[in-house]
Amino acid sequence: MRKNITALLQKGDIKPKERVLLLVANQVSEERDGKSILTEADKHALSEGWTPKDNNEVREYNRFNEGWRLAVFAEMDAQTTFLITKAEHFRKFFINMHLNFYPFYRDARNLIAGLEKIKVVDIKEAIEITNKQREQKLKDGLDFDYAIYQLAFESLSEADKKRFKELYADIETDHQYLDQEEIIANLFNGKDEPTKEAKEKLAELVAENCYNKFAKEYQLFHYFACIPLAEVARQFLVSKGIKVKGKLLAKNQEADDEDSKTHKDIQKVIEDYARDNKIKVEAILKEACLKWLDEDLLEQYTPLVISNDKELFSKWLKAKEKAKATLQKLIDKGELKAEQTGQDRTLTGESLYNLKGEFEFVKDFKKRVDEYNANLGIVYKDDDPEHKGEHLDQELLIADTNNKGELNIFSLFGLTTKKLKATFEATQFIKETTKNGETTLDFNNETLKTIFKEIRESLINGYAKLLAFEDIFKRLSKTYETDLTGKVKSWRESVGDFIDQHNDALKTATGQKLHGGEDNEKAESWLIKRRGVLKTKDDLFIDKEKITPNKDGLESYYTKFKDALGNDF
């Protein structure tokens, strides 16, 4: 650049337009990069140290110089627009803070409501309720197969337990993993490779595992034994030329945030494919699993029966058989009792509770029977004249009551709860209204609501006006052959960030985003399912994509630039 400028100056034959363009490029470079591309002598030679040949050169120089002078004023006006919008944005900081903290307030309010619902009892009633729950636990007893599982696991050596936990972290209490591994082992039937019929059965089992009947939705984060359903789905997509990013899922089922994102991405694509092609996800998974079984599925996700841990699995099967024999022996001796209900076999609670011995699973059962579990609740007998099948799922408060059995108004618990409730209600400016099963969020202070709406409009108008200024400077950039949009673009992007903060605050308040905008899709998904998504009474969100340049008030600039620069603008 420096060499070119020197050559032009030495040549002397520089057109008036080129002189202004060089001066403008130099000023932009100084402001943007802090570097000058012209010396003082260059600047003097380009502006004052030359004599126009005729009036045409005078007019050309003045025309582009006037255009640049107007550009400086336009940039100042754009900056003023930005500063006004910025001031408006910070004016609603207090309101944004309330929106961002609303989920905490909502949770606290619900917790206080829960405190008010705690059942107030005297010591006699507390004992009666505790005994009723205890009776129900004893009546429920313990599933015979689960008792076998628990006894078998506790009989393993510590080293074997540790290895099993490495294979599946929840293996001590969740029997599904080893049950499914046993199913696969039976399909192998002592052979090194499964038969065609065994593969067919395994593919069906994998496919059936993808749908959660209780949640009524597909859940590809499930596994069948060591086989991740999401990877089976990915194999199908790859066979159709559809690639889904994300790391290969582990067979030990230890999911992290990246695993969760991989599951989500694969599930979305496979569900879209199934919908578009009018085919069930189960059919897709079965087809993909069968094909993969003929390739290297069992090499990548090797079941225990043919893995390096096959001896460990053999120990488990022996421990399970021994545990079953042990329990059956106790039943035969009359020390334990079992009841048959359909296909299920249950060890009675009374016999388990009275069983002598050092079995850990029996100790755990006795502990659960003796401890009151507020989350478990109890079900009163149908012949109970007062409750008739009422389900209690709550904590008990043994406290001072009046002659009606209600909490004494001057009790410490009652006064504290009322004080907390009053404090929260007095410091909140957001309210919820439920109508026809739909909950709506609104301001309970009309002044704040008006201010919020006014500032929302200011953000929209500021963004729209800066878009118009950006349009002007894009056109000027072509005229002066250098990028003049830097400052205006930066201001427009800043206002865009203000709009994002505005929307994020509303998303947080309505349950669509974590407080603080944490980028955690798994946590946000859980949050939305737990709280549900609220609606705002009015449309308070801002859609940046729908904002168009607002040229109102800028017409004079378009006119002046057109007058000064003509067809060059």
Which helices and strands, and how do they pair?
Elements: H1 2-11, H2 16-33, H3 40-47, H4 55-91, H5 93-117, E1 119-121, H6 123-140, E2 142-143, H7 144-155, H8 158-167, H9 176-188, H10 196-208, E3 211-212, E4 217-218, E5 223-224, E6 227-228, H11 229-239, H12 257-276, H13 281-293, H14 297-300, H15 310-332, E7 338-341, E8 344-347, H16 349-354, H17 360-370, E9 378-379, E10 391-392, E11 396-398, H18 412-426, E12 430-435, E13 438-443, H19 446-480, H20 486-510, H21 521-531, E14 535-536, H22 555-565
Parallel strand pairs: 1-11, 13-14
Antiparallel strand pairs: 2-8, 3-4, 5-6, 7-8, 9-10, 12-13
Helix pairs in contact: 2-4, 4-19, 4-20, 4-22, 5-18, 5-20, 7-15, 10-13, 11-12, 11-13, 19-20
Structural write-up:
With about 575 residues, the chain is mainly alpha-helical. The chain is about 60% helix and about 5% strand. It folds into 3 domains: about 1-50, no CATH class; about 60-120 and about 410-569, no CATH class; about 175-305, no CATH class. A hairpin with a 2-residue loop joins β12 (about 430-435) and β13. α4 (about 55-90) packs antiparallel against α19 (about 445-480) and α10 packs antiparallel against α13. The longest helix is centred in the first third of the chain and has 37 residues, at about 55-90. It is elongated and about 125 Å long.
Features of the shown structure:
three-stranded mixed sheet; elongated; 3 domains; 22 helices; mainly alpha; 569 residues
A few lines on this structure:
With 569 residues, this protein is mainly alpha-helical. It has helices at residues 2-11, 16-33, 40-47, 55-91, 93-117, 123-140, 144-155, 158-167, 176-188, 196-208, 229-239, 257-276, 281-293, 297-300, 310-332, 349-354, 360-370, 412-426, 446-480, 486-510, 521-531, 555-565, and strands spanning 119-121, 142-143, 211-212, 217-218, 223-224, 227-228, 338-341, 344-347, 378-379, 391-392, 396-398, 430-435, 438-443, 535-536.
